[in-house]
Amino acid sequence: MTTKQDLEAIENQISAIQVSSHGETVNPVLAHGGFKIVEKGRNWGWLLSGFISLNILLLGIAIVCGSVFNKIQISSSHLLIFLILIVILTTVWMVYYKIHTSRVFNAVLYKDSHAGPVWLRGGLILFGVCSVLMDIFKIIYYVGRIHCESPVKIAFPVVQALFVIVQTYVLWVHAKDCVQIQQIITRCGLMLTLSTNLVVWMMAVTEESLHQTVAPVDPLYNSSSNGGHRSNVQSQGRAGDSECKCIHDMCDVFEKAYFYLYPFNIEYSLFASAMAYVMWKNVDRQMDEHHSHNLRFSLWDVLIGPVAGLIILVAGLATFVMYEVDVAKEEPKKKEEALIMHYIMNIVAILLMSIATLIGCIIFRMDKRDQVSGKSPTRSLDVGLLVGSSLGQFLICYFTIVAVLASGVQGRINGLDLTNSILTVIQLCLQNAFLIKGLHREPFKEMETATVFANVMAERERDPERRSSSIVPAHTLPIPLMLLQGRLSWKRRILKEICAFLLFCNVILWIIPAFGARPQFDNTVGSDIYEFQTWAAVVNIGMPFGIFYRMHSVASLFEVCLTS
Q1: Is the pTM of this model over 0.85?
Q2: What is the pLDDT of residues 115-145, one digit of tens each?
Q3: Distances (CA, A) of 525 to 223, 532, 555
Q4: Which of 59, 123, 316, 323: disulfide with 508, CB 3.0–4.6 Å?
């Protein structure tokens, strides 16, 4: 018999730890005076790290803009010096976190199971490798021009390559950490990391946008004929570069190579920023580990979706190559054919994506799975990034719709452009709804399988004649899981097919703009209505967010596919 004292002791032990409704453990001792001390320290950490991030970002924006619009007083060398300083400071903090903070006893008591999934960290490594290659190509390029370029342009790629290697390692190992000690220092260090990556992203986006922006050579040029040709806005700034001769013959090759690798560097900075933000939110967070799920992915679960997606991907790559080749010929007829081909390809892909996404939304409407309980910084960030980054494409689409309608929808190209913009708006709305619903659903549970074998075992116990019969355990039966899950199997199959199809489609919609296709400039209806300066600003602001939206959608679709 358990005595009264034993019952009281057990009750006290149980009440020592309370689990909140959000899945985080709360110590009741802190519910009085101790809680105020912890909450005060947490608020100071949030405020101080927020101020650090805000000041670095605003200063970075000012220097980036100054280096673009005022190349005399504020040159690119000044921007690179600023970047070298914050990159070195961030690298020093990450090394300190790795060799000291993370190794202190009880420094990391909890791990966020939703943070830093393996496919996100795998993407970080892929983009990191490409970023390091880009830095190597930059070093080789600027070494060939060392006699007429600032040494800072060689120093920055070296520092950035070291920064990428250290940061990739730290995020791969510690992305799930919920740090419990040195909270103010850790919060400030993570916000410094986030800000540094965003400033590097802004610089890369600016250089890439200036490299891809096209403009009419003649200011009086009448662009309504779609007969103009490409002219890089940096051509005036590079006019003086012709006097600087490269000391080796590979400068042009390496320059083109590192510009082709810019999209990977841009995505790397955004991936790292997102992972640093999640770590910042997880500082001092206490987790209930019962909410983690072991998800698996099998290529045998899907067939039609990947095949259809691969067809769209291959067709998109073919049309992209043909588009770039035809536009580079600077012939009006070739450019018109290239634009028509590009728009038709986009319209077909976006229309199929819209239909697939609508079917997925209907299935989610019929789905009986519970909503995910509890707060998760990773999930909140995913939804925020999806909605926020999609605004870039919304911006370009609505400006295009207004421009085409104002011009009277003249010609096949403008008609296709209008159709493509309207369908893109619809597809973005449907895909956002599909992903948000999918990210907030609990994974499918194998309850039907457990019920089947529970009933079999119960029947065996009730029937004496069956007790002597041999029943093979559930885990050894060669029966596919889909056959045991009844009505839910077709829903799961369709959701996985839809996710796989949309994943490949979003990949090609990322590749086309990320690697240089700019139909917004080749079709001059936008610059006719808004003037070139305004239209270039709209495209160069919206395009980076649109490119990131497609890549982030790929990661979200993969997660929804796993939970389905």
Answers
A1: no
A2: 777 778 888 999 999 999 999 999 999 988 8
A3: 8, 10, 34
A4: 316
